[in-house]
Amino acid sequence: MNKNLSRFDALRIDDSASVTRSFDRQALRDWCQLAHIAAEWPEVPEPLIAGLFSYLLGEELPGHGTNYLKQHMQFHAPAQVDEPLTATVTVTRLRDDKALVNLETRCTGAGGRLICEGDALVLFQC
Amino acid sequence: MTQPETEAQPRQALQKMQEEFVLTQEDFNRFARLSGDHNPIHVDPEYAASTRFGATVSHGMLLFTVLRGMIEAHYPGARLQTQNLKFPAPTFTDQPIRVTLLVEAEQPGRVELVTQITQQERLCLDGRCCVALAEELPR
């Protein structure tokens, strides 16, 4: 086994990481500036929900060294301002010949309401 | 900024929307604060200079943010139903990015778009989305 893949080799199917965070009106205003949107945005925009997944992938599972290749998302319900959102990523497939990791990505809101589900593919070579 | 319409198909006149933006290091920093993703490859120019990229690269979801803003500009109040994203190449600060939305299919209340971002002819974001138009949405 390639010793450079030791961090990859420590990954297991069903490994999972979660984060809970909410976005306030100021966060939405800051986001609108980056998106070149002049108006107030009524709900948590999809890229901030996606950002919860990218935070988890880049910082927690697999972590630093992750190269984000693909993300698919299906949005089921809008997320509200100040609503606690819990994002979870779970390893579903490991391809050690290419250091590729597939993960399920899921975000729920208040009362476990499904906000977004999908999957991600990352390269984890370090 | 005219582009040859190489993808024109007889079944319908494809609508293509394009706009250029420039992302700065401060934009990367602001997205890091918003998302909590302070990975040094995005926010630490000195560290990033020592990596294979040679400079800081954009968060993928900051690119998605710019793309989402452009969808809002053309389809106000619309909601994304699905979004696929691929990130085939890194995106750097201070070089213009070109965002393209291409209408692939239209149905009542719904549109499917090809979504792309290029920087200096490199495809940096390659995606596709389904958008529910505002008049069809319960508010």
Keywords:
heterodimer, A: 126 residues, alpha+beta, Thiol Ester Dehydrase, Chain A, 5-stranded antiparallel sheet, 3 helices, 5 strands, 37% strand, elongated, B: 139 residues, 4 helices, 25% helix
Gyration radius from CA atoms of chain A, angstroms: 16 Å
Number of beta strands of chain B: 5
Cα-atom radius of gyration of chain B: 16 Å
Average pLDDT of chain A works out at 94
- In what order do the strands lie side by side in the largest sheet of chain B? 1-3-4-5-2
List unreliable stretches of 5+ residues of chain A: none
| Helix-and-strand structural type of chain A | alpha+beta
| Number of strand elements of chain A | 5
**Global geometry of chain B:** elongated
- Number of domains as seen in the coordinates of chain B: 1
Helix content of chain B: 25-40%
Q: What is the largest interface, and how many residues per chain?
A: A-B, 32 and 32 residues
H/E element sequence of chain A: HEHHEEEE
Keywords (chain A): Lyase
EC number (chain A): 4.2.1.119
Organism (chain A): Microbulbifer aggregans
GO molecular function (chain A): (3R)-hydroxyacyl-[acyl-carrier-protein] dehydratase activity; 3-hydroxyacyl-CoA dehydratase activity
